[in-house]
Specification:
The complex is a heterodimer of chains A (223) and B (385). Chain A is an alpha/beta fold and 223 residues long. Chain A has a single domain, classed as P-loop containing nucleotide triphosphate hydrolases (Rossmann fold, 3-Layer(aba) Sandwich), CATH 3.40.50.300. Chain A is built from seven helices and ten strands. In chain A, the strands form two sheets. A six-stranded mixed sheet of chain A has the order 6-7-8-3-9-10, sandwiched between helices. Chain A has a four-stranded antiparallel sheet with strand order 2-1-4-5, covered by helices on one side. In chain A, α6 links the parallel β7 and β8. The longest helix of chain A is centred in the last third of the chain and has 16 residues. The two termini of chain A are 18 Å apart. In chain B, α2 packs across α9 and α2 runs antiparallel to α10. Chains A and B meet through α2 of A and α1, α8, α9 and α11 of B.
């Protein structure tokens, strides 16, 4: 049985005569541990689809089901709980909190989790170890390189062991060597059982994915 | 990582904004504390002065006499009936509801006597109570015993009497035990002796001409005490001597109202400073809040971060505001107080009140920014970058 199911997802922005359809009739299924790439031209609806999959953007119609949970049928505050328990995010611009250290940034998703400080710190250090950043945990984001920031973002995304990791152009700001390292890291996470959905422009990055969802004008053109 | 740490670190990162909020609230709290301390100190000062005036309740025999005086010139009177005060009735004063506010009860008997061929007014008093009732008295010599008298300064001068001299009062031999230093009051014209001595001299055993009462007046209800004493002494006329301070108290009450109005405006401005600065801060942190929401922070978590920031800043503002306020009040008293005697007392309630008040203002002013922050759509917040 599929872990993630999208059924007739449809998203419009605006109202009246200025309605823009961002995505239309999106249907797919993704199994546990699958590495899925979402590709398409700029404006094809990739980011809209990712934000819907990230439980942050309510679709105009359709259903989005993860682990038998109809995500958008949940009340808003429970959608936040869903994001915390089921999803990890890796953003293109890293989106690290500038005044928190590397360790504190990684501990951020655990802030609202009921656990002792020591346990949370251990979890964060484990996550940083898994991305190879155990030596820079007390640095601020401004004191590390772009590749390292991306690794911190990945560590933050996986610190609470979410079953699904969503990545939006995770290598968009990185050089080719670092891109390769980050992609291998994501592939390893996929091998470890995390379902990865990654938006990318790069054909090189797409090669790491087991399945590609190609969007054009808001529609899936290649299942 | 806790929400508290996030709030604290954010404040540390945005020191300028935090300092601005802090300054706004400190000014507000300090103003209120200064005004409250100043008004309290002035009120205490007036109350203390009232106590130092000595007697503030006077009990005289009820009379149906219509006095005929004009411009200080007595033209005599039409006496219908005089109800004298009986000494034994004074025990009732100590049983009134506000008896604990009574500092001293001073019975007095007055009468004219002949001393060295001069007609002089003699007052029999309780010298134990006179220390409280007449705190301005300075006596050369000692207070009189059973067969002794105390002379007013003018009496001593006119009769040319000194301490230790023997005089005959109504043919009774009495020794001068002391002389009052000039007081500028009618006491200078009087001869004082113990109550029992004068009652015997005037043949008024068990009767009194008047009674002076000193009430501890810090927040004591003088008017109510007058009513209570009147009830236990129905044949006497009880009067409050508070006109002198009443005017000042009324002025102070007006000043109090005005000050609290000013405080309200200052607090309102402080609150607006917090509101505007917090709103600016929330706008700056759109992305950050978007990240928090994206990684699973509930709206309530975001609100708590904003409120925690407000509590930290306003709590610190409350502490500093209290001390600055007390300092301003101290300086203000040095400029405005006539006697320099008012003291700023450390008021724990005011200190706690200013901290809690500052926190409440901070929380109220942050409510709207916190609400706006919690409503930020994570998708929109992240897209705005």
């Amino acid at each position: 049985m599929s872990y993630i199911t999208a059924e007739g997802l449809f998203k419009e922005y605006g109202n009246g005569g200025s309605v823009v359809t961002a995505i239309s009739d999106i249907n797919f299924k993704i199994n546990t541990g699958e590495f899925v790439g979402i590709m398409g031209e700029s404006g094809a609806g990739k980011s809209t689809l990712l934000s819907i999959l990230g439980a942050m953007n309510v679709p105009t119609s359709g259903r989005y089901i993860v682990d038998d949970i109809d995500v958008y049928a949940l009340p808003q505050e429970q959608q936040a709980d869903f994001r915390r328990e089921f999803l990890g995010f890796v953003f293109q611009s890293f989106h690290l909190v500038p005044y928190l250290t590397v360790l504190e940034n990684v501990m951020l998703p655990l802030t609202t989790v009921k656990a002792g400080r020591k346990k949370k710190q251990d979890m964060a250090e484990d996550a940083l170890y898994s991305v190879g950043l155990e030596g820079k945990i007390h640095r601020l984001p401004s004191q590390i390189s772009g590749g390292e920031k991306e690794r911190v973002a990945i560590a933050r995304a996986i610190v609470n062991a979410p079953p699904v990791l969503l990545a939006d152009e995770p290598t968009g700001n990185l050089d080719s060597k670092t891109t390769h390292e980050v992609m291998e890291l994501l592939q390893q996470l996929s091998f470890d059982g995390i379902t990865i959905i990654m938006v990318t422009h790069s054909a090189e990055c797409a090669e790491y994915a087991q399945k590609i969802l190609r969007l054009s004008d808001g529609r899936l053109v290649e299942p | 990582m806790t929400l508290k740490e996030i709030a604290f670190k954010n404040l540390m990162r945005r020191k300028g904004k935090a300092a601005f909020i802090l300054a706004g609230l400190i000014i507000g709290v300090a103003t209120v504390v200064a005004i409250v301390s100043f008004v309290d100190a002035m009120t205490n000062d007036i109350n203390n002065k009232l106590e130092k005036y000595g007697a503030n309740i006077l009990i005289v025999p009820r009379t149906d006499q219509l006095t005929l005086t004009y411009g200080g010139l007595s033209l005599g009177g039409v006496s219908f009936e005089m109800h004298e005060i009986r000494q034994q009735d004074l025990t009732g004063i100590r049983s009134i509801k506000n008896a604990r506010n009574i500092a001293a009860v001073g019975p007095m008997v007055l009468g004219g006597v002949e001393v060295m061929e001069e007609r002089i007014l003699i007052a029999g008093i309780d010298f134990n109570a006179s220390g409280i009732l007449k705190p301005w008295w300075k006596v050369s010599g000692i207070l009189p015993g059973e067969h002794e008298i105390l002379l007013g300064a003018e009496v001593a001068r006119v009769l040319n009497l000194g301490i230790g001299k023997i005089v005959y009062v109504n043919n009774r031999m009495l020794k001068v035990s002391g002389i009052l230093e000039p007081t500028g009051s009618q006491d200078d014209q009087l001869v004082f002796a113990r109550l029992e001595t004068v009652q015997a001299l005037l043949n008024k055993q068990g009767f009194l001409s008047m009674v002076e009462v000193a009430a501890l007046c810090t927040a004591c209800p003088i008017g109510e005490m007058v009513r209570q004493i009147s009830q236990v002494l129905p044949t006497a006329k009880v009067m409050a001597i508070q006109q002198v301070v009443k005017g000042r108290m009324e002025t102070l009450a007006q000043f109090k109202k005005f000050s609290f109005g000013v405080s309200g405006v200052v607090i309102l401005i402080g609150g607006l400073v917090v509101l505007v600065t917090m709103m600016g801060s929330i706008r700056e942190r759109t992305a950050e809040i978007g990240i928090f929401r994206a990684i699973g922070f509930r709206k309530s978590h975001v609100m708590r971060i904003v409120f925690l920031e407000a509590v930290i800043v306003s709590g610190v503002a409350g502490i500093f505001g209290y001390f600055f306020g007390v300092g301003f009040a101290y300086l203000g008293l040095r400029f405005f107080s006539e006697s320099m005697s008012p003291k700023i007392l450390t008021d724990v309630q005011l200190a706690i009140g200013s901290i809690i008040g500052a926190i409440l203002v901070g929380l109220l002013a942050s409510a709207y920014p916190a609400f706006m922050a919690s409503r930020l759509d994570p998708h929109e917040a992240l897209r705005s970058l």
